[in-house]
Amino acid sequence: MWIYLLQGIGYGFAASSQPGPLQTYLISQTLTRGWKQTLPAVLAPLLSDGPIVTLCLLVLSQVPAWLQRGLYIVGGLFVLYLAHSTYRSWKSFDPEATAASAGQPNVFRTALLNLLNPGPYLFWSLISGPILIRGWRETPAFGISFLLGFYLTLVGGYALTVMIFGLAQKLGPKVNRAMLGMAAIALFCFGVYQLWLGFFNM
Questions:
Q1: Do residues 175 and 27 lie in contact, with contact meaning Cβ atoms separated by under 8 Å?
Q2: The model's pTM
Q3: Among residues 24, 71, 27, which one has the least CA distance to residue 52?
Q4: Which of 4, 86, 168, 190 would disulfide-bridge 28, Cβ 3.0–4.6 Å?
């Protein structure tokens, strides 16, 4: 059981520390709303990954090209929408107004971002899926150990990222605004890259 638990922890750590649209969106929300308001959004993968894992394990042995292409295109457009929202927050950045009007980020929007990201589909169909199936066939406890290790580490990693960037607010509004601008640029680049993969590289 321990080998599956450790594998889950390892892959969860790798997934949470890898730069991507979801992590960047969490950072942008932290910079605009604060870490306490953003923290619930780290639970988004628990909402979105259920359908992804089910689809990859029960229906697909490998994600078909047409689904990858569609996810890249739709996901790229959605990431560009988030980049535009982050840019607007950067353009009209007001620390006092932000603190006064900060609301809780929409967990379902964060989950939708993850659902439209091709990464989890490829990850669960090519990497984690076979490990989960092998462990489950030996005994369900092994499969559950892998899932627990993965999601506890994944959510914990995202939570740590949110709290770390929450400290940026103490560095002053100029640093906070600059980091928000970088998050907007990063989201824009992720969106364009996903569109390029969807249209030209599949």
A1: no
A2: 0.75
A3: 71
A4: 86
Report the distance separating Cα 38 and Cα 32, nearest Å.
9
Give the integer Cα–Cα distance in Å for 132 and 4. 8
- Please identify every stretch of the chain with a pLDDT value under 70, giving residue numbers as ranges: 59-63, 93-106, 169, 172-173, 176, 201-202
120 vs 48, 114, 144, CA distance in Å?
10, 8, 18
User: Could you give the 3-state DSSP secondary structure of residue 72?
Assistant: helix
For residue 95, the model assigns a pLDDT of 55
Residue closest to 44 by CA, chosen among 15, 72, 6, 71:
15
Nearest to 75 by CA among 14, 155, 21, 15: 21
159 membership: H or E segment, kind and range: helix 140-166
CA distance 201 to 70: 12
The reported pLDDT for the residue numbered 93 is 62
At CB < 8 A and 24+ separation, what contacts does 87-96 make?
87/181, 87/184, 87/188, 89/28, 89/32, 89/180, 89/184, 90/177, 90/180, 90/181, 90/184, 93/173, 93/176, 93/177, 93/180, 95/169, 95/173, 95/176
Q: What is the DSSP string of 90-102?
A: HHT--HHHHHHH-
- From CA 122, how far away is CA 56, in angstroms rounded? 8
Q: Phi and psi (nearest 5°) for 93?
A: -60, 125
Contact 175, 168 (CB under 8 A): yes
